Amino acid sequence: MRVTFLGTSGAVPTTQRAPSAVLVNREGERFLFDCGEGTQRQMMRFGTGFDVSHIFVTHLHGDHILGIPGLIQSLDFNDRADPLAIHVPPGARGEMERLVHAGGHRPGYPVRIHEVAPGSVAYDAASFEVRTVETEHRTRSMGYALVEDDRPGRFDRERAEELGVPVGPKFGRLHEGESVELDDGRVIDPEQVVGPPRPGRRLVYTGDTRPVEAVVETAANADLLVHDATFAADEAERARRTGHSTAREAAEVAARAGAKRLALTHVSSRYAGTWERLERDATAAFDGECFVASDGQTVDVPYPE
Ligand SMILES: [Zn+2]
Ligand SMILES: [Zn+2]
């Protein structure tokens, strides 16, 4: 699983930072989390590929959605035929429809808009799901968590051979959790040769938000938490007033959740040359790996073991 930060600015972009967008490539399937203005050019610049199956929108502020019409129209020029799903908070369908059809455009491929309530599942795939998580901003908003299912435990090949299981298809059946009968009539159960299930990966993207309890819960043991960090600690009052977080507040959420890594994003343009201070604010409150994301930065998210 690879995460590419396409846009890491706050509401107003800078020459170094584009408005919000994060691309996640999970085993070849591409997801966009938010799609600020110019996201399609960032995808070109950073070579992520265009073939996105889902766009997960946190809220309808312009810096998170104005890239959608351009991307949708460019996909048409590329003769796209596959459907595109766009997930939005409750009540946002009408606005999103207008955006999809901006300038009277009619996409030549199916564009499906799904309103999803916070605290539910936006996309239920075979081996993972994308959940929605309640956030607190100045408008209807939510974050997303990509949560993989547990993987089967490790198969102890040596032990299986000791027990007399013949090398072959019975190995596979045991690993998938089935008991098998041997030629001598003995039955071998999977628990005898397969270790405990191993956790999948967990990635949380908050979008714009105050620090909230729901994110702490959803980001429990997360492999990567991407959190709003619009302001430095000395602007805590402004963060509260505008429905954002300081880097320090983001770090406190990560620490309480026990997240492994924290990416700070949505950096206010006021820190154009001084963003390192956000990193300093955060490392004071969070022991794990922590960084201010920059446009074009890619991060691999490996399995926990
Ligand atoms: Zn924003
Ligand atoms: Zn916003």
From TrEMBL:
Please write the reaction equations for the catalytic activity of this protein: Endonucleolytic cleavage of RNA, removing extra 3' nucleotides from tRNA precursor, generating 3' termini of tRNAs. A 3'-hydroxy group is left at the tRNA terminus and a 5'-phosphoryl group is left at the trailer molecule
Q: Which residues form a coiled coil?
A: none
Q: Which residues bind Zn(2+) 2?
A: 63-64, 208, 266
Q: Which residues form the Metallo-beta-lactamase domain?
A: 18-266
Q: Sorted alphabetically, which InterPro entries does this protein's record hold? A: Metallo-B-lactamas, RibonucZ/Hydroxyglut_hydro, RNase_Z/BN
Cofactor note, please?
Binds 2 Zn(2+) ions.
Active-site positions, per UniProt?
A: 63
Q: Which UniProt keywords apply?
A: Endonuclease, Hydrolase, Metal-binding, Nuclease, tRNA processing, Zinc
Output the Gene Ontology terms for molecular function. Answer: 3'-tRNA processing endoribonuclease activity; identical protein binding; zinc ion binding
Residues annotated as binding Zn(2+) 1:
59, 61, 137, 208
What this chain does, per the entry, is described as:
Zinc phosphodiesterase, which displays some tRNA 3'-processing endonuclease activity. Probably involved in tRNA maturation, by removing a 3'-trailer from precursor tRNA.
Its quaternary organisation is: Homodimer.
Q: Which HAMAP family match?
A: RNase_Z_BN (MF_01818)
Protein name from the UniProt record: Ribonuclease Z
Per the UniProt entry, what species is this protein from, by scientific name? Haloplanus ruber
**Gene coding for it:** rnz
